[in-house]
Amino acid sequence: MLTARAFRKLHFHAIQADYYDDPETGKPREIDVSASMQTETNDTLFVVRFCIECKLARDKPWVIFTSSDIKLADPARIVQRAASSLGHALLENIHKLEDIRNLPVFLIPERPGYGLTQSFTNGQDTPYAAIMSAAKAAIAEANDADRFSKLVAPVCAIVFPVVVIDGLLLECYLDERNQMMVEEVQRGILVWRSQIVGMPHTIVHVITLQALDDFVHEAEKTSLALLLTCDKELAEIVKSLPKKSYKMKK
Hints:
Helix content is 32%, strand content 37%. It is of the alpha+beta class. It has one domain (2-239). Strands 1, 2, 3, 4, 5, 6, 7, 8 and 9 form a 9-stranded mixed sheet that branches. The protein is globular and about 60 Å long.
């Protein structure tokens, strides 16, 4: 509820307990919050969406394992996102633009995360389930946009998976002397070597409740920049597509 409210305060359309079809099983699954902004230009719907899984973790801290050895080139950190076909085409078109590269949601920290777990547990891997849910919801939204594009009208969708935790988040890494360091952090970014979203990496934001407001402001800045400054690039991409005769539903 707090996550949905934070997004609504900055004029996102936020849905709680939203449903998506699991891209692997086809079964309906629930995502805690789906928050989006959208615009329409030249009969093309352009949507920027955040699929958010929320977890309570006050008793057992989550640990994100990070390393400065993990590198992701500037083009990759822009392009390797969950997106519809039009969304991917747009990201390929704009990834060289400096203003786009500097948008906060596209930035990657000096030490990205490569793994996420919860301490003091030997049962269900809650962090793994959370990032899987957020990532699957993101690609499901992108797939829905592609289906809509084929049947009704073009949709450009760019989707970011996010996990918000109410609890302690720790970062674990090796320093220059190969000493293990464990520090409390408010947020991290998991650059996961998994192709859930159809890319070599699945990039997931992991945010504590304390950092939520800052992240939502960054989400707003990124969303508005994409929606308001990429209309010409998107129009050119749509113009180059084969003409279709869409059957508009009444």
